[in-house]
Design brief:
Blueprint (H helix, E strand, L loop, with lengths): L1 E8 L4 E11 L2 E12 L3 H4 L9 H26 L5 H5 L1 E8 L5 E9 L3 E4 L7 E6 L1 H8 L4 H7 L1
Antiparallel strand pairs: 1-2, 2-3, 4-5, 4-7, 6-7
């Protein structure tokens, strides 16, 4: 199956058209054709800018940066420590995301993600940034480092 998407500009509107064709036994068949009017180009509708954002959006962006730094710091510390637990350190729990162009917040509590900080832009959609609680990194960094040595000497 082949998919194609076009953005067409007319003097009074923008049009997003997409279709799908399937090749069966050497014959191409159109299996889907959709169109939707837009008020502006996808480039403008999905633009991500820091200007005019709310305090909550800036806070989430700060949490994304903090979670990324904390996870990388824990990962570097774990690589130097015996008994590697790298995958656990990279796991994040829960997910708080914000759509950059609309400002819509979403919260998913039963969520597991490989990285604690993420930024993504699905095809023809706006950017979103997400942060997860870097629980693996926090557990690693807050664990008592001298507990095995103290138990062995006692």
């Amino acid at each position: 199956m082949s998919n194609v998407c076009f953005e067409l500009h007319y003097p009074v509107l923008w049009l997003l058209a997409d279709g799908a064709a399937q090749n069966t036994h050497g014959h191409a068949t159109l299996v889907r054709l959709n169109s939707a009017p837009r008020s502006d180009s996808l480039e403008n509708l999905t633009r991500c800018s820091l200007a005019g954002k709310s305090g909550a959006q800036y806070a989430i962006l700060g949490c994304v940066a903090a979670a990324a730094v904390l996870s990388v710091y824990a990962l570097v510390r774990a690589m130097r420590a015996p008994g590697l637990r790298l995958i656990f350190i990279l796991v994040g729990f829960g997910k708080l995301a914000v759509d950059c162009s609309t400002g819509v917040l979403s919260l998913k509590l039963p969520a597991l993600q490989l990285c604690s900080a993420a930024a993504l832009a699905p095809l023809y959609r706006s950017w979103s940034v997400a942060v997860c609680l870097p629980l693996g990194a926090l557990v690693f960094l807050l664990r008592p480092h001298n507990a095995p040595a103290a138990a062995a000497s006692g």
